[in-house]
Amino acid sequence: MASRAEQVADEADIAPPLRPAGPRGDGGRVLQYVLPTLVVLAFLGIWQFVPPWLGIPPYELPNLSQTISGLQADWPDIGTGLLITFQDALVGFLIGNALAVLGATSFAYSVNMERAFYPVAILVQTVPIIVYVPLLRILFFKTAVLNAAPDAAAVVAVTVLIAFFPTLVNMTVGFKSVDPRVLELMRLLNASRTQIFLKVRFPSAIPFLFSSLKITSTLAFVGAIVGEWMAASGFNPLGQALQAVGVNSIFGFETNPANGAGIGYLLSIFQFKLDKPGIFASVLAVSILCMLFFGLMVLLERVLVPWRPTQ
Amino acid sequence: MATVEFRSVSLTYGGDEPVEALRDITFEVGDNEFVSIIGPSGSGKSTLLRLIADLLPSTSGRILINGASCSRARQGREIGFVFQEPALLPWRSSEKNVRLPLEIMKRSGEGGRQKVAELLRLVGLEDFGSKRPDQLSGGMRQRVSIARALTYDPDLLLMDEPFGALDQITRDEMNNELLRIWGERRSTVIFVTHSISEAIYLSDRVVVLSPRPGRIVDTVLVPLERPRDPSMKHMQLFYETELHVLQALEGRTAGGVAS
């Protein structure tokens, strides 16, 4: 976690982080997809065949097919957990990034805002934000947030914070990553501050936004899962909404169980019950969910940032 | 239609170690005149252009554009500027880059659309309006940048080594293009370069600056007729003018040939 600040800085250094130069020749292009696929298949093969071959029983280390059966067996619990974890991560991701963009915008407009808050933001960035969960639980105690329990609110809040700081820092850099000659041109044209912001600064920062969305899309899940683990709770407005309209089992599980809690909490339960297939199944399922969410960010970047820098 | 008048303009950059960039610059540029400013690196050529464009304040002296202050000329959008790098917005197509000044001035309606199309035609990019900068060559990008500077019909066009980053062949081609464009829509041009032959080929007059602090060491009148064509570069008169500018740059001018 401590390396997160460096991670953001690295991303910012190489920004605008556009696609690398394409592979040369069709052979390269094919290998570019075939080789990582082979690595994944090899890993899955080892997972499937090595534990039985070594005689390790499934209650100690379930292999791939035993994990998948575990997933099927525990799907009502794991499915609910995924839904809740996804909501914890998504809500925090969206709110955190939106607040960060607003914050960086205020820095772009006011030097004093930046002077006051930016160093603090850099400082807070160095703290693994997850440690604030117990503190947030105390803070939200007796505070009803969107019908969620204080523990659920603490989980979302920590996800907000976890997404907020990297994007704030990245966008602050992004808003400044403007060609100085373009700014001279804007002055020559008597452009207003808002025109400069909307037509120059904001679009210039979009590649920085995407590098930050990619980082925070994974960090948001870290925040959600660890937060759920620590707070033993989660945030489930979609499940509540689905139940309210009477379609609470469209995913093949009840969406609004009374004690709904995310994958993080589920993991602690499975661990307590020594249910290794359950642990493996939860981890596998949530890993796939994280990758899909990250993939969505990459896809959005490809669609929305087609240009490359020319100078 | 613009005249520019320098009255003993000096500029010293402040800071812990002040740097004197320009000292006592006095000269005049007439209506629709094409004047080049040449000098070694660090002679304050770009600084001079930024003073005219009101992007920098001078330390002393005055610059008058059409008899009024630079900031008035800037606010009246009488000044166009072309940078050494095209300085285009990479997410905008050529057409949208050219249209940018009109958007800022809230004049990008139907008339603006026609203006943009006309300018893209003028710079020979009518088929490339929808291409982004990363899909254009260096010379094409600089053409877009020139078209952008012309969208609001500035009376005064300032060009800061606009072809300095191009290869020699593209540069020669762009010089001819610039002369053609200038022939079609006259304006006063102040052109900064460090190429002697480019300065002579394009200009009516060449102002030679000394190394830091920049002072005017000579003003050389170019005795070539207009329209210019590439064969003039092989005329005796061209060589003599080149020699004259070169000697001025080397500080061997004999009192200077007055313009």
SSE topology sketch:
The complex is a heterodimer of chains A (311) and B (259).
Chain A lengths: L3 H10 L11 H29 L10 H10 L1 H35 L1 H15 L7 H7 L10 H27 L3 H9 L4 H39 L5 H8 L18 H10 L3 H29 L7
Helix pairs in contact in A: 1-7, 1-9, 3-12, 4-5, 4-7, 4-9, 4-11, 4-12, 5-7, 6-7, 7-9, 9-11, 9-12, 11-12
Chain B lengths: L3 E10 L5 E11 L4 E5 L6 H8 L7 E6 L2 E2 H6 L3 E4 L11 H11 L5 H13 L15 H13 L5 E5 L7 H17 L3 E6 L2 H7 L2 E5 L6 E6 L14 H14 L10
Parallel strand pairs in B: 3-8, 3-9, 6-7, 7-8
Antiparallel strand pairs in B: 1-2, 1-4, 4-5, 9-10
Helix pairs in contact in B: 3-4, 3-5, 4-5, 7-8
Description:
The complex is a heterodimer of chains A (311) and B (259). Chain A has twelve helices and no strands. Chain A is globular, with a radius of gyration of 23 Å. Chain A starts with a helix and ends in a 7-residue tail after the last helix. Chain A has helices at residues 4-13, 25-53, 64-73, 75-109, 111-125, 133-139, 150-176, 180-188, 193-231, 237-244, 263-272, 276-304. Chain B has two domains: 1-78 and 155-167 and 194-259, P-loop containing nucleotide triphosphate hydrolases (Rossmann fold), CATH 3.40.50; 90-154, no CATH class. The relative contact order of chain B is 0.18. Mean pLDDT of chain B is 89; it is low at 254-259. Classes of the chains: A mainly alpha (311), B alpha/beta (259). Chain A binds chain B through residues 179, 181-182, 184-191, 195, 199-200, 203-204, 206, 305-311, and chain B through 50, 53-55, 74-75, 77, 79, 81, 83, 85-91, 100-101, 103-105, 132-134, 141, 152.
